[in-house]
Amino acid sequence: MAHSELLTAADVRLMQGLAQRVTALRPELVNSDATFGELAWNWGRGHASERAGWPRRLWLAGGDPVAWGWAQLPRQVRRSDGSVKDITSAYLAYQVHPGHAELVDEVIDWYDGTAGDVDRTVMPSAADEFALRRWAAHGYGTDPASLGDTGSWTQLTVRDLTDVEAPVLPDGFRFRTADEAGSEAAVQAHVDAWAPSTYTAEAYEGVRGTPAYRGDLHILVEAPDGTMASSTIMWLDPANRTAEFEPVGTHPGYRRRGLGRAMLLHGMRLARAAGATRTTVACLGAPGHPQARGLYHGVGFRELSRDAPLIRTRSVR
Question: Which residues of the chain have pLDDT under 70?
Answer without folding.
Answer: 1-4, 316-317
